[in-house]
Amino acid sequence: MLTPEKFGRALAAAVGLLLAAVALAPLIGSSPISLERAFQGESPDAEILFDIRLTRTLLAAAAGGALALAGVIFQALLRDALATPFTLGVSNGAALGAVVAICFGWGTVGELSALGLAAMVGALAVMGAVLKIASEGRRMSSFTLLLTGVTINSICMAAILFLHSSAGFIQSFAIVRWLMGGIDSPRPATLAAVGAGVLVALGLTMAKAKDLNLLAVGEDWALTRGTDVRALMRFCFVLGSFLTAVITAMTGPIGFIGLITPHALRMVVGADHRLLVPASFCVGGAFLVVCDTAARTMMAPAEIPVGVITSMLGGPFFIWLLRSRRARVWL
Amino acid sequence: MKPLYTLHGLSYRYGGRRAVDHVDLSFEAGRMTSVVGPNGAGKSTLMGVMAGVLEGYEGGCRFEGREIAAWNRRELAARVAFIPQTLRLEFPFTAEQVVFMGRTPHGRGLFETEADRAAVERALALTDSQQFIGRAFGELSGGEKQRVVLASALAQEPEALLLDEPTTFLDLKHQLDLYGLLRKLAGEGVAVVAVTHDLNLAAAYSDRLVAMACGQVVADGAPSEVLRADVVEKYFGARVQVIETAAGRPWAVYG
C-alpha cells in the first residue's frame, strides 16, 4: 500500500537528485568562470553561466525527463519492457521531417528553425497516421498499435535512407550529425515553452498513474477494474508521442534514456506508476544532464554526440544493476 | 427474486462464426451457477460479454436492467468482478499491488484509504493469500497467482463475480477451498457465475448448472437435471456413469 509518507520520501530523493545535477552541471565546462563575476552580471562569465550552460542544462533536464517519461508511458501502453519512445515511429517521423528540411535547404520560418518545425510536423503526421490506422476495427489494442507503429517506423526509415543516399556531401554530413542527436543552448522563450509543456505532460501522467498500473497488467484487467481503456490508450499514445516529438524536434533522437531509465527505476521503486513516473522523470533528467556535461567537456572544444555518452555510461550501469539484483523474471 | 443479469437473444461473432448464439439466461443474486461445456462451446465468450470485455455483441445483455454496453466502466467495475483464465505480468508488481488494483473503481485519489486496506485484508484472508503480499506476483506458482487474482476480484466487493476456469492451476485442497468460498459468497448474496470443465466440482457446489454446446444453451437447471449420462454423452462426447453422492449430488464416474 502506497502511503503519502513513502511517496513523499521517494519524490524528495528523486527531485533532490535532479536539482543537484542541474545546479552542478553549469559550473563545469572548458572555460573557467568566476561565480562571483557571473552573479554580478559581468561579461563573459554571466553569459557563459546563464545564457549558455544553464539554458543547455535545463533543456537537457527537460529532454531527459521527457524521454524517460515517454518510455514509461509506451512500456505500459504496449506492455513491452523493450518499448522506447522511438518504437511507434514518432521519432523517425521527426527525423524524416528534419532530413527533408536539410535536403531542401530550409533555414528558418519567421524566427523559428525550419528544421525543428519540419521535425515536429513529421512527428505529428506519423502520430496521426498511427492513431488513425490502429483505431480502425472493433477496439484499439496494443498489438495493432505496435504493428502499425513499427510498420510506419520502417517506411520513414526507408525514406530517410533514400533522401540520404541522394543528398550532397554537406547535406549528408548535416543529416548524419542531426541523427546523432545533440543539445544546444536554446532561446529562453523556447526553453520556457518546452519546460512548461513537459511539466504539464508530467502532471497529466501522474493523474493517470493508477490507470497506468492497470493497463500495464492488461487491457481486459484495466477494463474490468473500471478504466476506459480505449480513451486511456489514446491518451498514452498521444502524450508519449507529443513528448517524443517535441524533444526530438529540439535535440534530434537521443537513445537509451527512454529504455534504461524506467527499467533501472523499476528495480529501485518497483512497478507502481505512482512512484515510477516521477522517479523516472527526475532520474532521466539528471542522467541526461550528466551525459550532456560529459559530452561537452570530455573532448573540449570538440563535442561528442550525447547519444554516444548515454549508451556508454548507461549500458555498463544497467548491466551492473542487473547483476547486483540477479536478473528478474520480467526481463 | 429479480435477476441481476438478464441475457436475451445474446449472440457474439468472431468474424462470420457465432461463438455465442441466441442465448437466453438470467442470473440472480445469492446463487451459484456453473457454466459447463466442451471446448469451443462459447463459455468464455459468454463470460467476456457479461464482464463488458467483449464489445459489439448482438441481442441483450443487461445488468441491473441496463445494457452492459451502456454502463459507465467504473460503476460497472464497482459491481461486477471478472477473473480471467490466466494472468501474465510483464512488470514486477507485487501480489499486494495486484490485490489493491481491485480497489481502483472505488476511489479516485492517488493513495488508498483505510476502507481500501480493510477490503484488501478481508479479501486476502478469504483466499488464504496473506503470506504472498510481499512477494513479486511473477514469482508465485500458478495456484498462488490464481488465489491472488481472486483476492483482487474480491477486493472489488462485487455484487456479481464472474470466473473463467478458476481452478485451472489449483491443487485439490485449494480447488475445494475455492468452491467452498464461492458457495459462501453466494450465501452472502453475491451472484457467482463460474465457467469450469470440472463437472463434478460444479455439480457438488453449484445451485445451478448451465451446459453449453456450439454457442447455445443445451441444458439448464439443478445439477441433478443437467449432469446426466445422456447429456454428457451427447454434448461432451464422453461415456460416463452418473451416481449420487452422500450429499445427494450427482457425480460422473468414468474410466
Which keywords apply here?
heterodimer; A: 331 residues; mainly alpha; ABC transporter involved in vitamin B12 uptake, BtuC; two-stranded antiparallel ribbon; 14 helices; 75% helix; 1% strand; disordered C terminus; B: 255 residues; alpha/beta; Rossmann fold; six-stranded mixed beta sheet; four-stranded antiparallel beta sheet; 12 strands; 32% helix; 28% strand; globular
Write the layout of secondary structure elements.
The complex is a heterodimer of chains A (331) and B (255).
Chain A: H1 4-24, H2 35-39, H3 45-78, H4 90-103, E1 108-109, E2 112-113, H5 114-135, H6 142-166, H7 169-180, H8 188-207, H9 209-217, H10 219-223, H11 229-251, H12 257-269, H13 273-297, H14 306-325
Antiparallel strand pairs in A: 1-2
Chain B: E1 3-14, E2 17-28, E3 32-36, H1 43-51, E4 58-63, E5 66-67, H2 73-77, E6 80-83, H3 95-100, H4 114-126, H5 142-155, E7 160-164, H6 172-187, E8 191-195, H7 199-205, E9 208-213, E10 216-221, H8 223-226, H9 229-236, E11 241-244, E12 250-253
Parallel strand pairs in B: 3-8, 3-9, 6-7, 7-8
Antiparallel strand pairs in B: 1-2, 1-4, 4-5, 9-10, 11-12
Helix pairs in contact in B: 4-5
Q: What does this 3D model show about the protein?
A:
The complex is a heterodimer of chains A (331) and B (255). With 331 residues, chain A is mostly helical. Chain A has one domain (36-325): ABC transporter involved in vitamin B12 uptake, BtuC (Orthogonal Bundle). Chain A is 75% helix and 1% strand. In chain A, strands 1-2 form a two-stranded antiparallel ribbon. Chain A is globular. The two termini of chain A are 24 Å apart. Mean pLDDT of chain A is 88; it is low at 327-331. With 255 residues, chain B is an alpha/beta fold. Chain B folds into two domains: 3-79 and 158-253, Rossmann fold (3-Layer(aba) Sandwich); 86-157, no CATH class. Chain B is built from nine helices and twelve strands. Chain B has helices at residues 43-51, 73-77, 95-100, 114-126, 142-155, 172-187, 199-205, 223-226, 229-236, and strands spanning 3-14, 17-28, 32-36, 58-63, 66-67, 80-83, 160-164, 191-195, 208-213, 216-221, 241-244, 250-253. In chain B, strand 9 (208-213) and strand 10 form a beta hairpin. The N and C termini of chain B lie far apart (41 Å). In chain B, 47% of the residues are buried. The A-B interface holds A 1-4, 7, 75, 79-81, 138-139, 206, 209-211, 213-214, 216-218, 220-221, 223-228, 266, 270-272, 274, 328-330 and B 51-53, 55-56, 73-78, 80-82, 84, 87, 89-94, 96-98, 100-102, 104-105, 110-112, 116-117, 120, 136, 138-139, 156.
